[in-house]
Structures are given as structure tokens and as C-alpha cells.
């Protein structure tokens, strides 16, 4: 148990592209102190340690001896090995998304975390994106969701399929929007174009509550895009995670002459005996760094002994759906062989 004034000693494991950002942000995370970092590539760890004036540990064991918590920012295929070692030592873990490459690994990670009474948070960072945060506590109950997540090719994450690398973000958001329910039906297709793994994929998820989500993810696009559109009864919400921005068009019974929330009248629609107003709103998004926010949530959960903002169960659930999508793709997949 920690006092609220205690500083949680944090270490960063893996200091590649994203790990270097974790190092920078961990230094400013309220309630935490960055003890040091470790990377199997000693040149890289020395370089990042010197840039940020922190200690580069020579081994994982040395880092574990000196921390209460760690961020695991290594390639996904190593999450299981690193996380089980950390949790075995009773160290709280923030694991970058996806939690692991296979559901069995994720379940085991969650089991050890529970046994060791460690906080385990998964880095589904889009939950902290200002556009998603702007939805607030209002549950839009979408009936149809369309998501596009497109990126240019980078060999960095090609150890896993695009479903585990990019689509997993939207899978997690769709599950959160459906209050954690998993889909009852999945259709998917995808192909390997550049790497040996699936590089472009589309999945259609159907939920028992009537919601359908159509997700497209590509890491072989010429330009990038991170957009989601939600269609609910009487509303349409467009989220742009890159901007970040949110636009809402809604139909309501409000008096067309009043504007209560800064939204703008677009017109009127006759529905039976009623004339209803159509409004357009663009809520202001908070100016926050999503990774800084998720790290803050992680440290707060450790100090307060509360569940983290994204739990092991949620990370496992997203991975389970991703696995089902990959299963569907494998069952239907033609492969483009460029050789
Ligand atoms: P990267 O290849 O740039 O860096 C990985 C680093 O880990 C390298 O420096 C490598 O030397 C080191 N490493 C490898 N095995 C290790 C081990 N066993 N112990 C210590 N260090 C080890 O990769 P990246 O792009 O920074 O991605 C890392 C993780 O972050 C991946 O799981 C990826 O899915 C995730 N990620 C998440 C987001 C997001 O939006 N949340 C974005 C990018 C990456």
C-alpha cells in the first residue's frame, strides 16, 4: 500500500520509437519518479539514457531491483516474456498494446497480476484521445460504427499482423462503446502485401444489442487516417483521432429557437406530428497528451489501489476479438505473392 504522497519508482523497458516517448513522459508523470530504463540494445539504451539524464540498467534484473512499476514498450512478441518476469517480481506493469500476441498469454499475464496483487494496465491509448474523451460520460449507443485506420508502411511493427498493430485500437474502442460486450458474429478478410503478416484488413463485427461495426486497417497506405463514425438513433458522431476533433449532428425535440450547448441549427425535420430540430455541434477537445494521461491513470491506480483505466481483462478481450478476426482471415485468405 502506498500513501498518496509516495513517489512510485518507474522503469521503462524498451526504448525504441515509443519507449523514448514513455521515458520523456514518465519523468513528468505526477506521483512517479523515473528510476531508469533498459533495452536489449545497449547502444540505444545508452543514447536515450543520456538524452534524458537517467540511468541505463545493464539487465532487466537490475531494473526490477530498483522499481515499483514499469512500462513495457518492447515489440509485442516479447510482452509475455517481459511482463511475466516483472509481475513475478511483484512489479506493477503498464503493457503497450496489444497486451500479448496470443490470448493464452494474455490470460496468464492477467492471472499472475491478480495473484501478485499488481496493477496491470494495457496501453489502449485512444481511450485517452481528446476526441474520444469529448464523448464524456454520454453513451451514444451506436447502431453502426465505421472506422478507418490507415498508415504508411514501417517495418517496426511488422512482427505482428495489422489487426494486432492498428485495428486493435478500434476493436478496443468498439468494445468500450458496446459496454465491454464481445461480438456474436465476425466476418473478415485481409491480405499480406509487403510483410509476411496481414498488412491490410477489414472486419465486420455484429453485436447482440444490434450494433454492427465495420473496421478497416491498413499499414500500406500512402497517407494516414484515424477516423471513426458512429451512427445512433437520432445522432451521427464523427471522430478524427489525428486532428483530434469531434463533430455531432443530432435530431432533437428542442425548441429550434434556442441553442443551449453552443450547437448550431441546421434545419428542421417533420417526424409524424412533430417538427424536430437538426443541430450541428463541434465540442471543444481538451488539449492533453494521451500517453501522459494514460500513465497518470496507471500511477493513480497503483497509489489508490483501484482498477486501472484499461484493465487486463479489457486488453484480453480486444486481443480475443483480434484473434477471431485473424482466424476468419486465415479461413478465407488469398495471399498476394510478390516474389
Ligand atoms: P520499436 O521497434 O521502435 O522499439 C522496440 C524496442 O524494444 C527496441 O529498442 C528493442 O531493442 C527493444 N527490445 C526488444 N526486445 C526487448 C527486450 N526483451 N527487453 C528490452 N528491450 C527490448 O517498437 P515501438 O514502435 O516502440 O513499439 C513497441 C511497442 O509499443 C509494441 O508493442 C507496439 O505495438 C506498441 N506501440 C503502441 C502504440 C500506441 O499507439 N499505443 C504505437 C506504437 C507502438
Describe the structure.
- This protein has 2 domains: 8-126 and 290-323, Rossmann fold (3-Layer(aba) Sandwich), CATH 3.40.50.720; 128-284, Dihydrodipicolinate Reductase, domain 2 (2-Layer Sandwich).
- The protein has 9 helices and 15 strands.
- It is an alpha/beta fold and 339 residues long.
- Helices cover 31% and strands 28% of the residues.
- It has helices at residues 17-26, 42-52, 60-65, 79-88, 103-115, 130-133, 162-177, 290-304, 312-332, and strands at 8-13, 32-38, 55-56, 69-72, 92-96, 120-123, 144-150, 185-191, 200-206, 212-218, 225-232, 235-240, 245-252, 264-271, 274-281.
- The protein starts with 7 loop residues before the first strand and ends in a 7-residue tail after the last helix.
- The model has no long low-confidence stretch (mean pLDDT 93).
- The strands form 2 sheets. The protein has a 9-stranded mixed β-sheet.
- Nicotinamide-adenine-dinucleotide binds next to helix 1.
Tell me briefly what this model is.
By secondary structure, the chain is α/β, with parallel strands linked by helices. The chain has helices at 17-26, 42-52, 60-65, 79-88, 103-115, 130-133, 162-177, 290-304, 312-332; strands spanning 8-13, 32-38, 55-56, 69-72, 92-96, 120-123, 144-150, 185-191, 200-206, 212-218, 225-232, 235-240, 245-252, 264-271, 274-281. The chain is globular and about 75 Å long.
